[in-house]
Design goal:
Number of helices: 5
Distance between the termini: 36 Å
Shape: globular
Strand content: under 5%
Number of domains: 1
Amino acid sequence: MEALCFQHYLTTGALLSHTAAQAMIPGGIELTASDYTLGVFDFTGEVMRFGITMIALGGVGDESGEADRILLDLRRLREEFEGLNTYSTGGSLGKDVDRKMTVMRQSVEKVENAVYDVIVRGSEKPKGWVPDLEVRTEEG
């Protein structure tokens, strides 16, 4: 699911829907809502890595605006996921979502911090600079 979503995102700039993903899976294998949702969570990590690469290659502030768009897309996904009620299904999805939500938030923060670093200190960075991917906390 993660790979299908990422490939679709790279070619269309949009999230692959559950219906479209189901149509891409061969052999009548059912794509459950839980599998789709967890796959989309994993997809956000791929988008984060892609965004960091775009930033390192000069994607922030360039004419394409690719890194800026990636950040906006990740923020939108975070907002949508935070609005989900995953405990009403009675299954184990809620526990998996808690763990994946934490990782997804860290991915969004990494891209935010990289974008901010380029904006604030962009002129100080040498060409080919790669941002620090450490997640910053209030403690340090």
